[in-house]
Design a protein that fits this description.
CATH architecture of the largest domain: Sandwich
Oligomer: single chain
Radius of gyration: 26 Å
Order of helices and strands: EEEEEEHEEEEEEEEEEEEEEEEH
Helix content: under 10%
CATH topology of the largest domain: Immunoglobulin-like
Strand content: over 45%
Largest sheet: 7 strands, antiparallel
CATH class of the largest domain: Mainly Beta
């Protein structure tokens, strides 16, 4: 017999999670910035002046006629960050036009290099991208006087968007057998965690379950299951982590007397939707005693 128990308090951070039957929650971060101005521009001068503002796009050269001097600065560096929404899998070409140097990075990889000290100059580069949300960064510097500004031209099918992700976490168990008295159980259940990507962006990182020693008679400290590092959870897909019998309240590994057990530690570490995802929570599944007697 299979029953499901869904995590009810997965909101971020870490702590002890008590599970309930038929509950649901998502680990998510949506629209981390102003949706009308989703880009963050950090400006720094050689003298240490630092200021930030938000923007709807990167058209600072066109908007100012190559006379972009934010906060009245002459020489300065600008670091522009945000996320791109890609409509479909494919190879896309991006264009930078800047004076002086600029570079475009997508998901941490250099795509367009228009670096160096120069007048207004155009450079292009292409990247194979999957559908969904990708982080990007444009670095720019202005020195030595003269024109100043940077434009980034996006290809059709790519647009600026808010950074965010949405992962659904379900915790459950497959019920095993007990004696008629409900006091003795042999390998009574198999717990699991099902993680589904219900957002628009791929998750890249590691999904992992570790055993946790505690009050159980046969506690473990071991990796029960892991996706391995660098795992890609695409939008619309799921991954199941097997917890074994570590998480139930009536029986750990080779445990015979029904009673509180140790649980496990769920860790989600990686990136999705242009944001870092770092989450951990202790889990123990509480199963009503009546279910043991009736099994």
């Amino acid at each position: 017999m299979k029953k499901s128990s869904l995590l009810s308090i997965l909101k971020g951070g870490s702590g002890l999670a008590l599970l309930c039957l038929a509950c649901s929650s998502n680990l998510q971060a949506q629209c981390s910035s102003d949706p009308l101005n989703p880009l963050t521009v950090n400006v720094t001068s050689p003298g240490g002046f630092t200021r930030s503002f938000t923007a709807p796009g990167i058209t600072f050269a066109t908007d100012t006629g190559f006379n972009w001097h934010p906060f009245g600065l002459g020489d300065f560096d600008a670091d522009i960050r945000g996320c791109l929404r890609v409509d479909a899998d494919g190879t896309y070409t991006f264009t930078l036009n800047s004076d002086d140097g600029s570079q475009l990075f997508i998901d941490g990889t250099l795509v367009v290099d228009d670096g160096g000290v120069h007048g207004p100059q155009v450079a292009t580069g292409s990247a194979a991208l999957t559908a969904g949300t990708h982080s990007f960064e444009v670095t720019f510097f202005e020195c030595c006087g003269g024109p100043s500004g940077v434009d980034l031209t996006l290809p059709p099918g790519v647009s600026y968007t808010c950074c965010g992700y949405d992962l659904k976490v379900e915790v459950g168990y497959e019920e095993g057998g007990c004696s008629s008295s409900g006091l003795y159980c042999g390998n009574p259940d198999s717990s699991f965690v099902l993680i589904s990507n219900v957002g628009p962006s791929a998750f890249v990182g590691e999904l992992r379950l570790d055993g946790v020693s505690g009050i159980g008679l046969y506690g473990h400290e071991e990796v029960h299951d892991t996706s391995g590092p660098g795992f890609v959870l695409s939008p619309g897909s799921s991954f199941r982590l097997e917890g074994g019998d570590e998480a139930s309240n009536y029986g750990g590994w080779n445990k015979t007397v029904c009673g509180p057990d140790n649980g496990f530690l769920l860790s989600i570490s990686g990136a999705a939707g242009g944001l870092d995802v770092e989450f951990s929570v202790y889990i123990r599944i509480f199963i009503p005693a009546i279910s043991l007697i009736q099994a």
